[in-house]
Structure prediction request, 87 residues.
Amino acid sequence: MAHDFASWVSGDSMEPKYHNGSVALIRETGFDYDGAVYAVVCNSQTYIKRVYLEAEGLRLKYKDIFISYDEDPRVVRIIIGNFIPLK
Prediction:
């Protein structure tokens, strides 16, 4: 699958679709609408969460995470696939 980058999924917050230890394949497209699942990159950390735009930053849902626009978060957007690597 054509993708721009991949990220390990760490944690169970996005199960059952994205399992801990799987790899998410991500294509850069930007932000479309509140509540969609996006990959967000900030401070060398990638988050795969439902994202909501707020006046002062981004709200990432599950255990609410707030990232201020001052931290320069980048919404990468679409997860085009994921897989669990073979050992």
The two ends are 21 Å apart (CA to CA). The chain has a mean pLDDT of 88. Residues 40 and 77 are 7 Å apart (CA to CA). The chain has one domain: 5-83.
